[in-house]
Amino acid sequence: MTARTTKTSSEEPPAKRAKSSAGHADRKGVVVLDYGSQYTQLITRRIRELSIYCVLVPGDVKKESIVELAPAAIILSGGPNSVHVEGAPKVFDGFWDYVKQNSIPVLGICYGMQLIVHQWGGQVEPADKREYGRMPIKTVSGSKLYGDNFVGFDTEHVWMSHGDEAKVLPKGFTCVAKSEEGAIVAIENPTENVYGLQYHPEVTHTENGTATLKRFLYDICNLSGNWSMEDVLKEQLEKIEAQVGPNGHAICALSGGVDSAVAATLVNKVMGGRLHCCFVDNGLLRYKEGERVMRMFSESLHLPVTMVDASERTLGKLKGITDPERKRKIIGAEFIQVFQEFADSVEKKVGAKPAFLVQGTLYPDVIESCPPPGKGQKHSHTIKSHHNVGGLPEDLKFQLIEPLRELFKDEVRKLGAIMDVPERFLKRHPFPGPGLAVRCLGDVCQEGALDTLRLVDEIFINSIREAELYDEIWQAFAVFLNARSVGVQGDCRTHSFVVALRAITSADGMTADWYPFEASFLAKVSNKICNEVKGVNRVVYDISSKPPATVEW
Fold first, then answer.
1. Is 302 a catalytic residue?
2. What is the pLDDT of residue 77?
3. 450-469, pLDDT tens digit by residue?
């Protein structure tokens, strides 16, 4: 294992921050109980976009956890279950007494509304006609849920996705909107502060969806919308300071991406010279990535970074491994081993053993690695193991510092901008922790695979930059398919590799759509790749959205 260190001002003292007796803005926000809807994360995002703090928790969470969060409002999400089926998800025993005693308004969405109707004594049955997609509804004027927001616009289109419906409402509840088919799609009981929507206000296909959420949160729940990234920064600085104390040392795993760089910048404000950053070349980096990233750390971020070459050892353990989940686990475990060795070297150098590991884990990483209940089982299937979450060993020797764990990607970029992280760095496309291993199908050690992938990816990204499309795209990359096709090059028959190109648009990585390049652009890129990259004779473009596909292959 070899290392080199950038020359930076690592001994700058920790940031001096004035302690305000006023503290943070009001942290009491919204808790969303997740019952498995594909749109649940969007509820959290829409609420945060309204400058209100919101956290997503599993639908079977215990009362103690809710009490600790002390929410000002609770939202019950949608889900694929039927409330009248044995074992269907539900709120904890005593939930309705708890919210009434604490005057907490509750909004149920889709399955959440059906759960309200069912538990309050109404009837939910299979719908005579299932409703999916964009459909018109008619609202009742003068309701508390809608108010005067839709005067003159009492017919609007919303996004439906349900097979059951409320047939009989509980006592005290009134219907305030119906679908074209006559189904009850919005209910309220202002006396009990309980409301329900059969449709999804969080999706963009729903007209006035955000306005309806805003009315519930601002006018019914009396929330003020005073949560901001400045509050996140202040709170995280104080949490880190309390966690590490005045003498603790930490190491930070920098990947060259936005997440770890923002996390390191944040922690560096507290720890200064007690933060020791490590950039690992595991042999799975893009073309000249190590050289470029180290220069960026030194010239733009002014972070103290040591580069560790662990390529030979990592690739040695990946040789012959084709299962993508096993590859992620191996890479995650190897990362931790490298960091442990780096921590030992830091201890010898400074005389203090680093007890903390800083990571740029984001909210989608946590959600996708440990999904909530709601798919007809105790927990829904793991989409993938993120190396920061699902790939960590049980006997981890470090305490984790994850200041971005509750944030989405666009929120991380906003946080970085507040801390003056250069814009050109914040706009970098995401790069997966396992690196090219998840973009090389099959054995990454097969002859020529990684070198071919690097060259193809470099041509693709440079072409995007030259076309001035880079900032329009959330993420773009090439994939080595481990498949050969017949071709003709230079009047000779070839049997060469097929590569795929992928470019997506997204706001947070939770959902994504493929980028619609002009056909002439794709033709130019394909021609350049086949001409300049030896061993490639076919290029395909991935037009899969997420869902059903994931971003990476």
1. no
2. 94
3. 999 999 999 999 999 999 99
pTM of the model: 0.69
Q: Would you call 110 a catalytic residue per the annotation? A: yes
What angle separates helix 258-271 from helix 409-418, to the nearest 10 degrees? 40
Catalytic site residue from 202, 207, 289, 334: 202
DSSP 3-state assignment of 272?
Answer: helix
**Which residues, other chains included, contact 226 with Cβ-Cβ below 8 Å and sequence gap of 6+?**
25, 26, 51
Give the sign of the dihedral formed by CA 493, CA 494, CA 495, CA 500: negative
For the question of residue 202 being annotated catalytic, the response is yes
Beta pairing partners, 536: 497
Give the pair of three-digit tokens for residue 147.
């108010």
Q: Which residues contact 338 (CB under 8 A, 6 or more apart)?
A: 1, 278, 280, 282, 308, 310
Query: Residue 533 pairs with which residues in a beta bridge?
Result: none
Tokens at 35, concatenated: 């019952």
Q: Which of 162, 200, 249, 276 is catalytic?
A: 200
Q: Position 109: which residue type?
A: I
Catalytic hit among 110, 221, 277, 278? 110
143 and 111 Cβ atoms separated by less than 8 Å:
no
Instruction: State the Cα–Cα distance between residues 421 and 302, nearest whole angstrom.
Output: 10
Residue type, 260: S
